[in-house]
Amino acid sequence: MDYRTAFRLDGKVALVTGAARGLGREIARALAAVGAKVAVSDIIDDGARATVEWLRASGADARGFVHDVTDETQWQQTIAGTIEALGGLDILVNNAGVESGALLAECTVEDFHRIQDVNVTGTFLGCKHAIRAMSPGGAAGRGGAIVNLSSAAGMIGVIAHSAYGASKGAVRALTKAAAVECGRLGVGVRVNSLHPGLILTAMGEQLLDGLVRLGLAPDRKQAQAALLALHPIGRFGEPADVAAAVIYLASDAARWVTGAELSVDGGVVAA
């Protein structure tokens, strides 16, 4: 292995879902910074376009797609569009997701289903159609890497996040099944999951506000202090912390890594 280039993604094509803002946007920026061509997708049309413009301003080759990850036809169209526009598909980052805080006894079945649909069905469809495209004889056909965004909440219990935790636990298990299947079938596709702690993106801020709304913290300052105390490293994460881990899992540096769960959480799960 040439360690000087092991983390480079020159000549690779990546698709990042949920990339209109926050974590997805930073992941797209990171992949482009190490040489990948990047397709970004999001249900928010204006946000996807803004990310593409931002990437292109830095010299990246980027395309954008409006994409509801719960819709199988849109998955097929987005992957086909990525391959046509950028010349292949080597990396998929299943980042799109939703979160909604509610005590288990108060969570509506509609909210539970919505969270599972986006976080689990969306990830399943991404894996399904990326594996089809990346496998020998597929539209891209040169193997690849899939990185699924799970969460620390998919590994430990988090108050008022039973539906979200259930969805991210499912992503963790789905990742392992997909990794074993791809390995046994010899299709050349690696599949791994990332498990972030609290990142203060819009979704992270929503979690803090939810604790106050549910009466689990008297105010936002104390909600933030309580959650910070869960992180032994002493700070919340930044999008770049997760994006750097995505680069590793997508690159040849991780060529013998599949079915793994990588915690990028400041020590939350270890504590």
UniProtKB/TrEMBL annotation:
KW Ribonucleoprotein (keyword) present: no
Keywords: Oxidoreductase
Keyword Oxidoreductase appears in the UniProt entry: yes
Coiled coil regions in record: none
One Pfam family named in its UniProt record: adh_short_C2
Highest taxon above the source species: Bacteria
Enzyme class: oxidoreductase
EC numbers: 1.1.1.47
Stored PANTHER family: DEHYDROGENASES, SHORT CHAIN, OXIDOREDUCTASE UCPA
Protein name as it appears in the record: Glucose 1-dehydrogenase
